[in-house]
Amino acid sequence: MPISARAPTDAGFTLLELLVTLLLLAVLAATIMPRFGNQRPRTLEQRAEEVARELGRLRLEAISSGRVLTVPATELAARLPDGTTLVTGETEELVFFPNGTSSGAAWQLETENGAVDLTIDWLTGRVAVDAP
């Protein structure tokens, strides 16, 4: 009876294969998880910072285009999430001029949990968020 030599079978995975698989899973998790992690409701300060960034973008647009840009408070308030109101006081619209200045304003974002002040400097056009 002839004896045949059998080649050893590869049973299982090598350490290198396991490490590569774990690395791929970690990269996949790192790219997907932040999308689900940002589902928390934004705080009032974060909303105010978003409004400030938008106003800053409009100021830069006025400077770069060389045109006067008018921002009605009603248009800005319409973009706010439910439960957040914009209190404008006497200034119902904000004007950004091509030289970087503005008409200036002191607005406030309010929710049932509190309020944050938005101040737009007339001389520099800088938008500041003043959280209590």
Would you write up a description of this structure?
There is one protein chain. By secondary structure, the chain is an alpha+beta fold. It has a domain at 44-130: minor pseudopilin epsh domain (minor pseudopilin epsh fold, 3-Layer(bab) Sandwich). 39% of the residues lie in helices and 22% in strands. It has helices at residues 15-37, 44-65, 73-78, and strands spanning 69-72, 85-87, 93-96, 105-111, 114-120, 127-130. The strands form 2 sheets. A 4-stranded antiparallel β-sheet has the order 2-4-5-6. β4 (105-111) and β5 form a beta hairpin. The chain is elongated and about 105 Å long. The mean pLDDT is 86.
Which features does this protein show?
132 residues; two-stranded antiparallel ribbon; 4-stranded antiparallel sheet; alpha+beta; 3 helices; minor pseudopilin epsh fold
The gist of it:
This protein is an alpha+beta fold. It has three helices and six strands; from the N terminus they run H-H-E-H-E-E-E-E-E.
